[in-house]
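Technical note accompanying the year-one report. For the benefit of new consortium partners, we illustrate the data format agreed upon in the data management plan: each record pairs a sequence with a structure-token string. No post-processing was applied to the example shown here.
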Amino acid sequence: MTDARQLGFDTLAIHAAAEPDPATGARQVPIYQTTAYVFRDADHAAKLFNLQEVGYIYSRLTNPTVSALANRVCALEGGAGAIACSSGHAAQIMALFPLMGPGRNVVASTRLYGGTMTQFSQTIKRFGWSAKFVDFDDLAALEAAVDGDTRAIFCESIANPGGYITDLDAVAAVANKVGLPLIVDNTSASPYLCNPIKHGATLVVHSATKYLTGNGTVTGGIVVDSGKFDWSASGKFPSLSEPEPAYHGLTFHPTLGAMAFTFHSIAIGLRDLGMTMNPQGAHYTLMGIETLSLRMQRHVENAQKVAEWLEKDPRIAHVTYAGLKSSPYHDRIARICPKGAGALFTFALKSGYEGCIKLIDNLKLFSHVANLGDTRSLIIHSASTTHRQLSPEQQVAAGAPPNVVRLSIGIENVEDIIADLDQAMTKALA
């Protein structure tokens, strides 16, 4: 096949990392359901374990099906290398793992998925790490939050739950100025709507559970490395720039260049953390990605119509969809997400918290679930679920106050989506 970088998005979504199986000629990527791989001889085994040769050892590290998924997403994101792991949360830890250490911190946006907020504010403390949360619309505050112990800057391209679009160009400029990697969670946008690496991102993470798979059947995560960050320049990233004792003093970055982060994530991260994606899950996600562009087009089209209808409804206090001309983030679409503002947003009911609960209980087409990015339309009350662990102030900052519900608009007939919301609101206010 021609060089993947020269192919269009839709072609890559089908063909990247999907050469016919050399053993059987199978057209679809096979599910390599195996834990281990037979070595040619003792010398071959030794070279694999010493990272002197690329190949398969044990499926906790690499698996052909899982590798195909990582390589396909890497091609779609325009990265140098990528790994797949067990979940979106695992991907975030995998992204931070080579960069952090006891006493180090990450500066993160206040507009994050509630689970990420909890992971960063509470869970990572067990590693001796910490997080500072800043409104990334305030670039001066972002830069001021960086100190000598900061090792990364983290945000979402389209923020969950409100659908706010981050000015990645501006944030990347700050990251570049302070000499730190920018990590962007691109889950809500998908590579079809946004390409963070083009806007200066160092690492891109995904919950493959969402739009990449697209049907609510798989949990998985992806970390894509741009290959453009100089891990050796500052001395702040010794895991990548200094000799690794476990591999006889191998220095990942000088030795492996643009692939340093990816190889470290496999040889150290997956080896020791064990956040492995299973090959069947990888297969499902590979199949989902084949129709990603078609689904995202319908997601965006439907979301735009639903948001416009909601904005005009007198029962609604406000709608956060960036695709609306009234949104303060509307002017970022053409630059950051030129194919659309996604399908995730919130709206506030004038009837408040109780109205939100009654609305959800009266919906018929929408599924009340803790997920997004499904072909089905989904709804959740973030303040009482995904953002429940946050303080009221944090909920407001994250875009998840008590009078707000989050929608993930599916690809059903949009008239049916609107009709379901209409009848449920009518019953909620009766």
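Partners are asked to follow this layout when depositing records. The mean pLDDT is 95.
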